[in-house]
Amino acid sequence: MSTLLSVVPVVVVLVLMFRRVNMILAGLIGGILAAIIGGIGLPDANKTFLDAIPSMLGASVTVPIVNSAVATAVFKSGGYTSALTLAKRAVGGRVEYLAVFIVLLQALATYMSGIGGGSAMVIAPLAFAAVGAIPELIAGMSIAAAAGFITSPASLETSVITSLAKIPPEQYVTVMRPYWVIFTVLAMVLAFWGAKRRGSLNATETESEFEKMSTGDLWKTTIPTLFLLFAVIGGPFINKAVGFPILGPLVYTVVTIVLIALCTKFNWNQSFDALVSGADYILKALFQVGIFIAFINIIGKTGAWTNIASIATAAPAFLVVPTAAIGGFLVGWPAGAYVGSILSMVLPVAIAMNFSPLAIGFVALGVAFGSQISFVNITMQALASGFQIPVSKVASGNLKWILSCMVILLVLATVVA
């Protein structure tokens, strides 16, 4: 009976989140239930609360915060818009190649900033103006966003994963990078096929300020984007080769902001203001998740995660990781508004089972894919707004392609993990 009782707060939190109750309120209710069931006193609960928030704002997440802020500054200065405008000019009327570039831009922007919804908010309206609401393109952008934010060195999700699993963020990012590439390539292929089959679905053609710029000015505006991309992806390899952080966060932060001031319409003050304001989203998100994790940790003190893990071990050894990935997907589907909070609910089970960083990453990918057919997910809402279609149409259009990605993920989880 005690085993079943320990799981009740978990079920309550999930049900409340499925019903779109605020995540902190859902966590609070679950935490109070857990405290009553487990006999956890106020002093212990208070200590858990005070320990949880700093864990989400500590040194281990400093680099993701910095990366997110810098990438958002690049967004605001028009770096991604100029890149898409250049691509549009380069491919002429070849809609399929432009669709591929749009997905690649979504993938790279999400990977650099760690914010799938923020990337989609900028890129989706540009994509709609360029090629229209091609279903396979939208699905490709969703897949690229999911694979990007769940493996990004800059994302809230990576911060949550590595904090819970107590592994260095660099290790997790390195382990998961090949799978980010795999699903990004698949998303690009899907977008190419859909655009080739359907052609442009754009009904109107409007000329933005970027389309009026010369090719030389567009390349100049894109320089900060290219540098940040190079620093985030190639920097660790260069740093390791030379033996010191020649492209560490300090250097690429300063250089990127200087490049924004020199190469875009932003002046020096606007460039550095964009850096500071760029941290708004992730700092708020980390604080919110920190409070939520405090209540989740209180639930953990009842032995809930260990008890759930003991049930999962009943599956054959080679199916444990795929089963956990399916569980993550099934939770992420209805409750995927905030993937960071879902990971806080799902990953303690995998951690209790001593999953490797790769296996934990596969479970996290399952949650991320589930979120891309969730009506309440931020990326889904951004895509619906940008492509001017109902979010239900985005979800239904994504469904078969997301399920296809899940099949591939389960194969990888069975063979590799």
Descriptive notes:
With 417 residues, the protein is mostly helical. It has one domain. Helices cover 80% and strands 0% of the residues. The chain has helices at residues 2-18, 23-38, 42-56, 62-77, 79-91, 95-113, 116-131, 135-151, 156-165, 169-198, 215-242, 249-263, 268-277, 280-300, 304-312, 320-335, 339-352, 357-371, 378-387, 391-415. Helix 17 (339-352) runs antiparallel to helix 18 (357-371). The model has no long low-confidence stretch (mean pLDDT 86).
Secondary-structure topology with pairs:
Blueprint: H1 2-18, H2 23-38, H3 42-56, H4 62-77, H5 79-91, H6 95-113, H7 116-131, H8 135-151, H9 156-165, H10 169-198, H11 215-242, H12 249-263, H13 268-277, H14 280-300, H15 304-312, H16 320-335, H17 339-352, H18 357-371, H19 378-387, H20 391-415
Helix pairs in contact: 1-2, 1-15, 2-14, 3-14, 4-11, 4-12, 4-13, 5-6, 5-7, 5-11, 6-7, 6-8, 6-10, 7-8, 7-19, 8-10, 8-18, 8-20, 9-17, 11-12, 12-13, 14-17, 15-17, 16-17, 16-18, 16-20, 17-18, 18-20, 19-20
